[in-house]
Design goal:
Helices cover 33% and strands 28% of the residues. The protein is of the alpha+beta class. The strands form three sheets. Strands 3-7-8-5-4-6 form a six-stranded antiparallel beta sheet. The longest helix has 22 residues.
């Protein structure tokens, strides 16, 4: 048996030299060196999962409540269920529909952009037929080129009813009010949304009269960008700078607040029977008032002596009255 060409110690030294670059590794392209480039993850790097669990939870609440809204609007049994949440471009969202769709554009003040509700042609036709007491149209074989004013009005009624409820459900995380701005065809141009803009599409199944339809609520990122951490389930941190701004603003304006100032000028004791026997014109006698308390609203703030000044009843204040919270702060 022949001895090995390299011992174990020599093999270990060779591997270590290759790994740290001290030993050249030749190939058809020439020598190469083992090097490692440093990679640092920035402190503000964010991994976007696009799962939005909080938004999905809000959609479930919305779907369970909007079913009753739709039943009241159409006078027919209806069931709404969430189908999913996706993030894509606005053009991709429009292309998901099989044919022409009606887009209802809403303003959502104080949010900085629009919210869109997308209804395809079969859904619009089904809503119209059910609204007027029918059982719902069969799916259209021909693709419409436009929507009639009547169809648009029913679609607007449905969309307004749904988004008003969505604004109510979103109240704890973002208060906003909705108002219809315009309606568009899915092939048309919306001034505040470009084809390449990123949007979040919440899709809902709509079952009316045992027939399945669907609609989408489209949220442009420019509208809900500040809410993305909340949609992902993160808690919004308080902004210290913003808090300081409000603190200064409130302190500056509190001195201009108008409060009702009143004072006690005397007291007397009466039985309940005496009070019950009082009638118009009766005189309630009180002792000569000596001391008085000045109140701002219903809060006692000053104590003093009751008297007359320049021919008018007046209170000469002598002492600031401390509340319990004031005294505890003073002790600390």
């Amino acid at each position: 048996m022949t001895d090995p060409v390299l011992t174990d110690e020599e093999k270990g030294a060779l591997l270590e030299g290759i790994s740290n670059g001290e030993v050249e590794v030749h190939s058809a392209k020439g020598p190469s060196y083992a090097t490692v480039s440093p990679f640092e993850i920035g402190p503000r790097s964010i991994i976007s999962t696009n799962s939005y669990p909080r938004l999905r939870s809000l959609n479930r609440q919305f779907a369970s409540r909007v079913s009753k809204q739709v039943e009241a609007l159409l006078n027919a049994e209806a069931t709404v269920t969430p189908s999913g949440v996706t993030r894509c471009t606005y053009s991709d969202a429009c292309e998901q529909a099989a044919g022409l769709s009606l887009i209802v554009e809403f303003s959502a003040k104080p949010l900085s952009g629009p919210i869109l509700v997308s209804l395809d042609a079969t859904t619009v036709a089904h809503l119209v037929e059910t609204f007027f007491g029918g059982q719902g149209n069969d799916s259209r074989n021909d693709e419409p080129e436009f929507f009639t004013p009547g169809e648009i009005n029913i679609a607007k009624l449905f969309s307004m009813s749904a988004l008003s409820l969505m604004a109510e459900i979103w109240g704890p995380i973002a208060g906003f009010s909705v108002e219809i701005v315009a309606t568009h065809l899915s092939t048309g141009v919306i001034e505040l949304v470009d084809a390449g803009d990123s949007v979040i599409v919440s899709e809902f199944s709509l079952n009316i009269g045992a027939k399945d339809q669907s609609f989408q609520v489209i949220l442009p990122i420019r509208t809900v960008g500040a809410l993305l951490p909340v949609f992902e389930g993160q808690k919004r941190d308080r902004d210290a700078v913003n808090d300081a701004h409000w603190n200064r603003a409130l302190r500056a304006r509190v001195i201009d607040s108008i409060v009702r100032v009143s004072s006690d000028v005397g007291h007397t004791r009466m039985t309940l029977g005496e009070v019950a026997d009082l009638k118009a014109g009766d005189v309630i006698t009180i002792g000569n008032p000596q001391n008085s308390t000045v109140l701002a609203g219903s809060v006692p703030i000053l104590a003093g002596r009751f008297g007359v000044h320049d021919g008018r009843y007046a209170v000469e204040t002598t002492t600031w009255l401390e509340t319990k919270s004031d005294s505890s702060v003073a002790k600390n």
